[in-house]
C-alpha cells in the first residue's frame, strides 16, 4: 500500500521527465477538497488556482447533487462541466449569457427504483435506513429524521418529504438520478453484499461514498466513466494527462483511470492501494500537496 514514506518506485515512475504534463485535474469534494468545515481551505484553493494559471483544466467529480456542488464550482471559477451524482449528470452551469448544457444524464429506471424501495422497506430494514431519491436535482425523502436533517444541512438543500416515495415516481417525468440509503456502517456493507448478488454490474452500479452512505445509480455511471467522458469526448485529453484525487470507494474508478491517481490520507486502505500516491489527510491540505508535487513542481 503506497504511503508518504514508501513506494519510491511508483514516485520515481510518476516523476519521470517522459511523463506527459497534467492537462485535467479531477477533484472529489467531501473528504478531499472539502473537509469538516464544508469549505475549501485557502491553501487548497490557492493551489488549484495556481494549477489553473498553468493551463490545467480543473473539474469537480462528486456524489453530491448538482445544486449542492455548484457553489464550489463557482468559488473556484471553473469552466469545465460539473460531474455530479457520481457522474450520472455531467452539466455546464447556466450563466447570464448561456443556458445550462447537459452533456450526459443517466438515470435509474422507475421499475428498478421501485424494486430497491421494496428492498429497503422490508420490516427489518425500514426503521434502520433513511432513503433519499434524487429526481430533477430535487431531494425527496419519506420523512425528515436526524440523518436526513444532517445531510440537508451539509448539502444546503431542503429535502421534500412525501411520505410514500412511490408517489413521486408516479408524478415525476424522470426516474431517480441516484438513490441513497443512509444507515450504520455494518448495515451499509450488508446492503452492498446482498444487492450485488441480486443485481450484476451490468444492471446497477452500487458504491459507498462514506461508511454510512449506500448509493445506487445507472450501471454505466461511476466517476471513472464520467472523467473519461469529460477528458476524451469533451476536452480531447488522454488518460495519461489526467490526475484524479479522491478519498473513498466511489472514487476508485477515476483514480484507476487517471495517469496520476491520488488517494487522500484519510481514504480506506483499499482506495490507497489503488492509487499511485497517497496525499496527506484532507485536514492537512492533501489536495494542495498533490498539486504541488505533480503539477506545480513537475
**Main β-sheet description:** 6 strands, mixed
CATH domain fold name of the largest domain: Rossmann fold
Shape category: globular
Secondary-structure element sequence?
A: HEHEHEEEHEEHEHEHEEHEHEHEH
Beta-strand percentage?
Answer: 15-25%
Q: What is the number of E strands?
A: 14
Helix content: 25-40%
Report what the structure shows.
- 36% of the residues lie in helices and 19% in strands.
- The protein is of the alpha/beta class and 298 residues long.
- It has 2 domains: 8-105 and 222-296, Rossmann fold (3-Layer(aba) Sandwich), CATH 3.40.50; 110-217, Hypothetical Protein, Haloacid Dehalogenase-like Hydrolase, Chain: A, domain 2 (2-Layer Sandwich).
- The strands form 3 sheets. A 6-stranded mixed beta sheet has the order 8-7-6-9-11-10, with helices on one face. The chain has a 5-stranded parallel beta sheet with strand order 2-1-12-13-14. A 3-stranded antiparallel beta sheet has the order 3-4-5, with helices on both faces.
- It is globular, with a radius of gyration of 19 Å.
- The two termini are 23 Å apart.
- The model is unreliable at 1-10 (pLDDT under 50).
